[in-house]
Amino acid sequence: MSYANLQAAWADLLIDALVASGVRRAVVSPGSRSTPLVLAIRRAEAEGRLGAMVVADERVAGFVALGQAKITHEPGLLVCTSGTAAAHYYPALIEASLSGIPLVVLTADRPPELMHRGANQTIDQSHLFGRWVRMALDLGLPDPDPRAWEGLPRSAARIVQASMLPDPGPVHLNARFRKPLQPTGADPPEVASLRSRAEAVLDSGLPRPRTPNPDPRSEDLDALASRLRRARRGVLLAGPMAVSKAVPAAVVNHFLERSGFVLAPEATSQLRFGSGVPRRLVLDAFEQLLGAGRGDDSLDPDFVLQIGDAPTGRSLGTWLGSDRAPERVVIAARGYPEAFNRASDVWTMDPALVLQGVAERLDGNAPEADWPARARRGSERVWRTLDELLSSEGGFSEPAAVRACLEALDAGSLLSLGNSLPVREVDLFCPASERSIAVLSQRGASGIDGAISSLAGAVDASGFTGLLLLGDVGFQHDVGGLAAASGIKGSMAIVVLCNGGGRLFDLLPVRDALSGDPAAFSRFFHTPPSVSPTAAAMAFGVPGVAVESTDALADAIGEAHARPGATVIEARLDGPPAAEWVLRLAESVDAG
Fold this sequence. Notes:
The protein is α/β, with parallel strands linked by helices. The chain is built from 22 helices and 17 strands. It has helices spanning 3-20, 35-46, 58-72, 90-99, 146-164, 189-203, 218-229, 249-259, 286-289, 314-320, 351-359, 371-393, 398-408, 422-429, 451-462, 472-477, 481-485, 510-513, 518-526, 533-539, 550-561, 578-591; strands at residues 25-28, 51-54, 76-80, 103-109, 136-140, 170-176, 234-238, 262-265, 303-307, 327-332, 345-348, 413-417, 437-440, 466-471, 491-498, 544-547, 565-572.
C-alpha cells in the first residue's frame, strides 16, 4: 500500500467530514507538513464546497477567521503547519474563547518518531492551547484500519459540534503526517477501497449539533416580573452582543412599553443604531448621566436589568460597582458577565426569551411619572452641550472625527471599534440613530490586537462595507493585518485616530501619579507610535491618505467605500486630547 496515497485520502476524508459538519470557510497559512490538508482544501474549494483564504502570518490568520465567524456564526477553519506556527493563533483563540466564537484549529504535526529528538519544526502540539479550547483531539497518524476510516468522520463531526454547543468557542484538531506528503500516482486498490468506505459513511449522514431548549422557567419569570413591578425608574442596560445574537427590536420595544423602563444601549449592543426602538425610550447619554454624583439624583434609576456582556463604559462601570448602585439583574446567553460583584442575580439564558416572558407578566406596572420623558430630556441636554462645545472649539478634534465616521456610514454597513478609547468614544460622543449599523468589537479579552485582521475577515465573509475605527497604537499592533485586508472582496476603510498614543491612560489615576514627570508618563503609558499609517499602507500595497478635517475624512471614507479592498485613512487630529473633552463635557453638563 502507498502510504503517501493513504494519508492523502485520509486528509481528503477529514476535510470532507468537516465540510459535511458545517465548516464553510478555511483560512490557510503556508507550510510543508500541512501539504495533505492544503491539497484536500484546494480540491474542496475547486468543487465549490469550501471557501479558502491564504494568509501567510498565522497571527493575522487567526483574527481573520475570528472576524469571519463573528459575522457568520459558523465555525471557521484555521490550518497551519507544525512547530511554532500554531502558537501565533493564541491571541485570537483567547478572544474567541471568551467571546463565544466557534473556530476549528487544524494543526499539521510530525510523526511520533520525530518527537523529542531535536527534529526541525517539531514541538509537542497536543493540548497546545490548554483550557482556551472547548475540546482538543490528537488524530494520530493516518491508519489503514477500516474502523479508523469509519471513526474519523465522526471525530470531525464531534469536534465541530463542540465548537458550537453548549458554549461556542475554539476547538483543536492535531493531525500527524509522514513524508512523502503528496500522493504518488493513482490510488492502489486498498486505498480506493478505504475511500469508498469513507464515502459511504459521509453519505449516511453525520451527527449535527442540536440547540438545547433554553426556555426560562415560568416560576423564575414570575419572580423577576414581581421585582420589576416595584421599579419606578427602571433601565434596560444593553451591553456587548454579537451581531448574530442581537435581541430583536420588537422584543425590546414590547418590554419597554410594558415595563416603563428606558433603554441604555452601548454601541456594541446592536441596539444603538437602527434598532427601531423609539427615541423617546432611549437613554443614550447614560455614560454622562447615570450615577454622575451631581447632587441631582432625578435620573438615577432604582433598578437595572442588564442584558448582554459586561458593559464597557468607565463611568458606568464605576457607578455599577459602587455603594450607590441600584438593584441589578444580569441576563446573558453565555458566561458570567458580572465584573462589578453587585448584581443580585445572574441568569445564563437567552435575553430575548426572558424579556418576552417577563413583558407578558407586567400588566399594571406603574413607573414614576414622566420617567421616560425625563430620561430623554437628560440625554438631549448632553448632546446639545456637546454640539455647543464642538462648535465653539472648532478644529479637527477627536469627538468630531468619531462623529464624522459614524455620519459617513451608510445603512447596512459594518462598524468595527478598536478597544481602549474608540469603543468608548462612540458612546460618549455619538447619539443613537435610526441608521442600521452592525457593530463588531473584541470585548472578550478586550485586547487591542487583531482589529484590522478581524474586520477584514468579516467584510470578506459577508460582502458588507466596513469601517474600522481604531487608535494609532492599535493600528501598530496589527499592521500585518494589512496584508490580509488588501485582498478582501468587499470595501473597508481603516480610520486611524492619530492622537499620540494610548490616550485612555489620561483618564486613569496613573496620570496623577506621574504628574510631575510628563515625559515618563508619555514614554511608559502613551507609547506614541513611530509608524506612519499611510507609509505602512504603502508598504503593503494598500491605498492610504492623510486627512486634517472632518470634511476630508468624510470624503476619504466615501472614496474608500467606492473601491474594493482596504484603504487606510490617517486622521491627524488637533486640539485637546479626548480625556479633556470628556472632562469638559461632564463639567458643562453639571453646570447646565
